[in-house]
Amino acid sequence: MDYLPLFFKLTKQDVLLVGGGNVALRKARLLCRAGATVTVIAHKVCDELQDLLDENGGAAVIGEYHAALLDDKMLVIAATDDNELNQRIHYDAVERNLPINVVDSPDLCTFVFPAIVDRSPVVIGVSSGGSAPVLARLLRARLETWIPKSYGKLASLANSFRNQVKQKFSTVDQRRIFWENVLQGQIAEKVFAGRTDEATELLQDKISAEDPEHQTGEVYLIGGGPGDPELLTFKALRLMQQADVVLYDALVSPAVLDLCRRDADLIFVGKKRDNHAVPQEGINELLVKHAKTGKRVVRLKGGDPFIFGRGGEELETLKANDIPFQVVPGITAASACSTYAGIPLTHRNYAQSVKFVTGQLKNRTTDLNFDELVHPNQTVVFYMGLHTLPQLSQKLIEHGKPADTPAAIVSRGTSADQKVLTGTLESLPALQEKAQLPAPALIIVGEVVELHENLCWFGEEVLAQNLTPVKAEP
Ligand code: SAH
């Protein structure tokens, strides 16, 4: 970050503006809007600038710039087309530790003017640090259309209740939760609809009714999808942006985690194979503990929370403790990995049904009904099956699945290092033995895997022929 965005209080502060033309006029308008007292020094001052200064208590001095003009000023802006003069002003200002902006000369600036979206008292500044002002302006134009005009009114309403809320809610956390509810709920909607009186009444009622010691928190059980952050739902993103606390698993990608609210406490609760950082009961307790202090707790899981995610168990604990919750589905690995690998899970000619099953074996055996898994015309997707692939392959073949059924491993699906390895039910374990594709990985078994060759569009291929050792001639 080359520049730190700060907002300057300029009301009744003296600012020196060197230059009297149109560029100076534009800067003077902004300075006057912020309530500054502007002194302009120039050989000639255009009429509009003179009028502006007259209206806003500024002054124009006709004459030559000299360093003494900088005395007692808060800010300096040079808007002349004389490079030498601009340089001099720059050095004089820097010598006095005065913030200086030289229009169109980023090298001579110690501060820059951002493109501004004004919803006073809410103000948004967009800056490219002087490197691409047009881009900053384009962004501003987008924000202009996106942020309701009445945000200013909403901020003013909040401001008029600030002291009351401060008295009622003693901690910063309590106040934040209260305001987040107000600014995103029914009260905000009333303001946007132009019904400020009703909004004021509702806000007053809400302050009176709420008990600071018993603000109820909420838990959002959110499916974070398989890795690519663009596969999150809008709802997931919105709730992640409201989180006070985030409990996340190993399967949640850093790019997804990065989209949670900046100030949220991030707590890793583990779940790499055989290495539970926090046991399931511990996770349940943590959820309850944080929600009971009024926090918004995001429980972020890889894929979909209800598919091999133990999401149901966590919700049962919340229900037993009367904690409100919402569940947001995510794109499950089978769906995401198959699409990113160009393997449609069903297809008119090859598969009329699909089964999602766990490949995890208990005590090296499995509860899976293999007779069901070997039916023709269906696709079987194994989650958590990378380590049991040899047994799975053997069992399926034993139960009658043809050994030459196409099969694939999709490793780290949807991420930048996605890899796909294809083979047959029989050959895949040996191919993986050589390829050593890393977890998390999904195994897809069925005729549909053949479509991959034609439809693959994302990530890297691992070609079987490069893995198969060339047999020595007898
Ligand atoms: N709730 C998750 C699944 C959790 S079980 C979901 O709906 O996707 C964990 C298993 O999911 C892993 O062992 C792996 O088989 C699969 N998996 C999750 N993310 C994956 C990814 N990006 N690529 C491949 N497999 C993945």
Brief overview:
This protein is of the alpha/beta class and 474 residues long. It has helices at 22-33, 47-55, 83-95, 133-146, 151-160, 162-168, 172-184, 186-192, 196-209, 234-240, 254-257, 280-292, 311-320, 333-340, 370-373, 389-398, 428-435, 452-455, 464-467; strands spanning 14-18, 37-42, 59-62, 75-78, 100-102, 115-119, 122-126, 218-223, 245-248, 265-268, 296-301, 325-328, 353-358, 378-383, 406-411, 419-424, 441-445, 460-462.
Overview of this protein structure:
This protein has 474 residues and is an alpha/beta fold. It folds into four domains: 14-113, 3-Layer(aba) Sandwich (Rossmann fold); 151-208; 218-331, 3-Layer(aba) Sandwich (Cobalt-precorrin-4 Transmethylase, domain 1), CATH 3.40.1010.10; 334-466, Tetrapyrrole methylase, C-terminal domain (Methyltransferase, Cobalt-precorrin-4 Transmethylase, Domain 2, 2-Layer Sandwich), CATH 3.30.950. Helices cover 36% and strands 19% of the residues. It is built from 19 helices and 18 strands. The protein has helices at residues 22-33, 47-55, 83-95, 133-146, 151-160, 162-168, 172-184, 186-192, 196-209, 234-240, 254-257, 280-292, 311-320, 333-340, 370-373, 389-398, 428-435, 452-455, 464-467; strands spanning 14-18, 37-42, 59-62, 75-78, 100-102, 115-119, 122-126, 218-223, 245-248, 265-268, 296-301, 325-328, 353-358, 378-383, 406-411, 419-424, 441-445, 460-462. Strands 13-14-17-15-16-18 form a six-stranded mixed beta sheet, with helices on both faces. β13, α15 (370-373) and β14 (378-383) form a beta-alpha-beta unit. α12 (280-292) crosses α13 (311-320). The longest helix is centred in the N-terminal third of the chain and has 14 residues, at 133-146. The protein is elongated and about 100 Å long. The chain starts with 13 loop residues before the first strand and ends in a 7-residue tail after the last helix. Residues 469-474 have low confidence and may be disordered.
